[in-house]
Amino acid sequence: MAFQEFTEINKKRSHFVSISSHQAINFGGDWLEQNNLADKKFVKLFFNFEQETGKYQIGFRFVDENSEGTAFKLIINKGTESKAIVARSFFLKYLNDLNIDEFEKRYKPQKIEDQNFGSLWIITLKKKQV
Fold first, then answer.
1. Are 122 and 59 in contact, with CB atoms under 8 Å apart?
2. Cα(72)–Cα(28) distance, rounded to whole angstroms?
3. Which tens digits make up the pLDDT trace of 53-77?
4. What separation in angstroms does the CA of 6 have from each of 3, 14, 30, 128?
5. Is 45:68 a contact under the CB 8 Å cutoff?
C-alpha cells in the first residue's frame, strides 16, 4: 500500500462559475485550468435575453489585454486559484430589475459560437427551486 500525503489545506476545489449577491462573478480555479484560461488577465462580458423562453444569459470571453477598455480585470481570490470580477456596472445595465438572490449561485458554463462575437462561454441564469 502506498500512502499519499494530503497537502492542499484550505484550498477550495471549484469546477464552476458562481454569481454573488454582491454583483461579483467568480471563476473556479479548477474550471479555469481545465479550459486553459488560468493565465488570462481580463474577461469581457456579454448579455442575452431570450424573448421566447424568458431566459437570461451571461457570456464571457477571456482575454490577455484590455486594449479596448471594455474588459473587467480578473482578481485572484486570496488563498485559492480562482479569480473574480466585480461587475456592478454590468448588473446595473442588464439585471437591475432582478433580485439576483432568487437565482442559483453555481453554473457550469457552455462554450458556444456566437454569430456576432465568435467563441464565448455562457451561463443561463436559473431560478432557485423553492
1. yes
2. 16
3. 989 999 999 999 998 999 999 999 8
4. 9, 18, 18, 35
5. no
